[in-house]
Design a protein that fits this description.
It is a single chain. The chain is of the alpha/beta class. It has nine helices and seven strands, in the order E-H-E-H-E-H-E-H-E-H-H-H-H-H-E-E. The chain folds into two domains: 104 residues, Rossmann fold; 116 residues, Winged helix-like DNA-binding domain superfamily/Winged helix DNA-binding domain (Arc Repressor Mutant, subunit A), CATH 1.10.10. Helix 2 packs parallel to helix 3 and helix 5 packs across helix 7. The protein starts with 11 loop residues before the first strand and ends in a 6-residue tail after the last strand. The relative contact order is 0.11. The N terminus is likely disordered.
């Protein structure tokens, strides 16, 4: 069996917040050395982090808990108030279980105690970063597909209740809506194939066309679907294994 796996590595942009310059320097050197696609942007305060987040896009935030003026949990709360769902990992000191639980309750994706061997700590942090980004990507794809299905349901309801002269327009709207979001639909459907053990079932392009027709009642053309599949493969979001598509596990990207 010949397995074709994309080798391109997408840059993972990480905002690191810590008032200790030495801690930031060590973390940056280790993570970027062990993970070639990581790009760490350091800031020395929560205020700087909020300002940086307004002007730049990041895939994840790692933040120390104890900082002057605004601590890590307060930074997390402020980000969530702004409806920012960026993956957030908080670093706590030894024996700080209370702070860790509080962070999780307020929307942190992971917490990590700063204890033990540095190599183990940084390896765990690198793995956590990969995990939270992958989890958020799958969740966003699932939410996008659910939203699209709901919109399609509304359009079909309007179509049934509309006057005859409005029917063609409703059909066009549904088809246009689907084609505009075809990339997300494909990603969402592959995500839905995930089993409880996180193994991904594969689908051929023909499978995807039939599944889209089953869910939306619209038959997507092979050329349009193939174009979206090629785009997702070029971005290394999905992997083609002998003509069957799966979501590329984060550690392969």
């Amino acid at each position: 069996m010949i397995i074709q796996i994309m080798t391109k590595q997408n840059t993972v942009r990480i905002l690191h917040v810590d008032d200790n310059p030495r801690a930031i320097q060590i973390t940056r050197l280790y993570l970027e050395d062990k993970n070639n696609n990581f790009k760490i942007t350091p800031v020395l305060s929560a205020k700087q982090a909020l300002e940086k987040r307004e002007t730049e896009n990041f895939d994840a935030v790692i933040s120390d808990y104890k900082m002057p003026d605004m601590d890590g949990i307060e930074l997390l709360e402020e980000l969530r108030k702004r409806e920012n769902r960026i993956p957030f990992i908080i670093l706590t000191g030894k024996g700080k279980e209370k702070e860790a639980i509080e962070a999780l309750n307020k929307g942190a994706d992971r917490y990590l105690k700063k204890e033990g061997k540095p190599t183990v700590l940084f390896d765990t942090l690198g793995r956590y970063i990969q995990e939270v980004i992958e989890e958020r990507r799958k969740k966003e794809a699932h939410n996008a597909l659910s939203k699209l299905l709901e919109e399609d349901k509304k359009l079909k309801s309007l179509e049934r209740n509309s006057k005859k002269q409005m029917l063609p327009r409703s059909r066009i709207d549904a088809s246009t809506l689907l084609n505009e979001h075809l990339d997300l639909i494909i990603l969402g459907m592959l995500t839905e194939q995930s089993r409880s053990d996180d193994a991904i079932k594969s689908m051929t392009e023909e499978d995807l066309i039939e599944e889209i027709h089953r869910k939306f009642g619209i038959r997507v053309g092979y050329k349009a679907l193939h174009t979206s599949v090629v785009k997702l493969k070029e971005e290394d979001i999905i992997t083609d294994i002998e003509g069957r598509m799966t979501i590329t596990p984060f550690y392969l990207r």
